[in-house]
TrEMBL record:
Gene Ontology MF annotations: 2 iron, 2 sulfur cluster binding; 4 iron, 4 sulfur cluster binding; metal ion binding; NADH dehydrogenase (ubiquinone) activity; oxidoreductase activity, acting on NAD(P)H; quinone binding
A single Gene Ontology CC term: membrane
Ranges of residues in domain 2Fe-2S ferredoxin-type: 2-79
Keywords carried by this UniProt record: 2Fe-2S, 4Fe-4S, Iron, Iron-sulfur, Metal-binding, NAD, Quinone, Translocase
Enzyme Commission number: 7.1.1.-
Required cofactor names: [2Fe-2S] cluster; [4Fe-4S] cluster
Species of origin: Sphingomonas aerophila
Gene3D superfamilies: 3.10.20.740, 3.30.70.20, 3.40.50.740, Dimethylsulfoxide Reductase, domain 2
Catalytic activity: a quinone + NADH + 5 H(+)(in) = a quinol + NAD(+) + 4 H(+)(out)
GO biological process: ATP synthesis coupled electron transport
Protein name as it appears in the record: NADH-quinone oxidoreductase
Family in the record: Belongs to the complex I 75 kDa subunit family.
Occurrences of domain 4Fe-4S His(Cys)3-ligated-type (ranges): 79-118
Amino acid sequence: MPKLKVDGIEVEVPQGATVLQACEAAGKEIPRFCYHERLSIAGNCRMCLVEVKPGPPKPQASCALPAADNQEVFTTTPMVKHAREGIMEFLLINHPLDCPICDQGGECDLQDQSVAYGRGQSRFAENKRAVTEKYMGPIVKTIMTRCIQCTRCVRFAEEVAGVEEIGAIYRGENMQITSYLEEAVQSELSGNTVDLCPVGALTHKPYAYEYRPWELKKTLTIDVHDALGTNIRLDSRGRQVLRALPRVNEDVNEEWAHDKTRYAVDGLVRRRLDRPFVRKDGKLVPVSWNEAFAAIAAVEHGGSVAAVAGDLVDCETMFAAKTLVTALGGSRLEGRQTGMDYDTSSLGAVAFNSTIAGTERADAILLVGTNLRWEAPLVNTRIRKAIKRGAKVFAIGPETELTYKVEWLGDDLGVLSDLPQAVLQAFDGAERPMVIVGPAALAGAHGAALGLVDTLGLVKPDWNGFNVIHLAASRMGGLMLGYASKGGIADLHDARLTFFLGADEVDYTRFDGFKVYVGHHGDRGAHHADVVLPGATYAEKPGTYVNLEGRVQRGERAVFPPGDAREDWAVFRALSDAMGATLPFDSLPALREEMYAAVPALRHPGLANYEWSPPSLGTTATGRIEGYPIQDFYLTNAICRASPTMQRCSAELVHGESFAEAAE
């Protein structure tokens, strides 16, 4: 490990570290535009200049210079200061004075660093160049005259997203960053390029000219648009969430977020349920809370009560509903609303045991019935990192573009019983083998996939390579709370009274009893309900969520629900009084204490310890995987379907519709 001095401070850094990283280890701030910790080194901007001895008597780019023993690095000498001022002056030669109207204003690296490291005035009097705007799709707005050619967006698209559709054309002063043929970028991760852009060349098109960052209240919470549990920050003004940004969590999402996470927030204020409704003469009519509760209390259920949890609900809501169902004499609970049925006797057998971060350490990977690019985009990026380290990837299912090289084994599940020799050889010498079972194969091939644990040696003393992909943010928390009926959702069809907790993907035609929908959007569930009780979205209530690897996480409230809508647990608490089965809690902390007593693993944030005791299931799998559950990445839940941005993304990026762009 090299030892060197930075401004007289001795530091020791790992082999292969750069001088810039050594400076940061010494607590020194080094300005940069092109360098990013998760991208390859480009050395474009030259802003990170430092003086190094021994070496030539000139400033050197610290981002591209390897740290070595006995180096002496100086970050504040007159030579360095003068060089940085010169670089900043060159960067600003063609940069327009857009700060008063630029959406990046207040969060702009160029603003901050020009104040900290620039000259304070310009000596350039010639005309500035102008660059025409480039079309990159419904997500990214471009003002390319502001571009400083750092190429972060280019490297992200190629290295992380795996979509080589952004690049540079022309040379020298005429260089321009553009998408391929100036068409929409076909990536579900394109919004991350806006975060990476150090200037205002790439901004958020759905949020354009809507806010200034200092106007926004920032709230830390958890994303619910997939089962990954992406850590996010919701920025709100008044009673509306204006944007969602990812937070850094190395174990979950690193610092990325997919486009649903970022841009579906405009669906939070559309198609909302803001008052109770009761169906009278075939039509839903608005009523008071007391009238709605009275209609439910009048149902003669005789203890035949059930609850179905939707994909976006928190553990507190599910626990409150479960407690009420139990108090009314019922016991049937289900969270797999589309009808999927698989063995849940061991949570370890349906969890992502290798952990999300552990995915990038795997050296042989078999995908079974999963389109990871749409089902878990940020697990897909981890597999790309594993491939860069030498991992081989095989897949069973209909061929699709996963952004990396895959050896497809066909779509017949029978392959699990007779794997090709190439797969066996790859797994034979693997130290960290990995199998990922997706929802398209889980119901019919759970046992066959578990049989691979011994065949491929997936479980070792320090490694468990058996993994299951879920699609719902509520799935693992629901399974911990018992939302898994033995016969699947078909076991609930004859219930006389059923509570639907934001469940919009259910086949309601198969339920003959009284249907109560507790949710936040006027989507499929509300259209079929006998009573609708308005609830809160993930942005409007604190909640506990468990991601697909069993990581317990908590989110906070960013805004309040609209109109008469209330937090879901409070709805069930008030309803319990009307039904004569008062629940034993009056506040969220009291509810949580009851929940922790029932499921202690939910008390402490972090990975839950699921015991590895897989059930004994039949190891024969037959049949073909006809397709993957997600047919449209951008319209997977009620919030997305209410979002104009997600509707535009679906139309353009999935269905190929074209949209004319008006000149600005």
